[in-house]
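Batch job 17 of 40 flagged for manual review because the log was empty.
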Amino acid sequence: MRVTVTRGQDTTVDVALPARSARWLIDLIPEDVMTKIRAEGIPIDEIQGDLSLSAVLTPRQIFKLSEPQRVVQVWLE
């Protein structure tokens, strides 16, 4: 799983985690970010449910949160 946070033209976070980490994604995301994800209508609970039930995790975008000051992207490589 890959997580990036970009502010302007600068990538401030670029982290690679084992793909299986996506199965407990909600536990890894800070609460303030979770609040924004839900406010944007991103179905994070459904996404995690699908990921946790998947026998095989394949490359795909999990979600992208775009704010004026930053962009948070999470995907499976």
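Reviewer: the log was empty due to a logging misconfiguration, but the result itself is present. The first strand starts at residue 2 and ends at 7. Unflagging and moving on to job 18.
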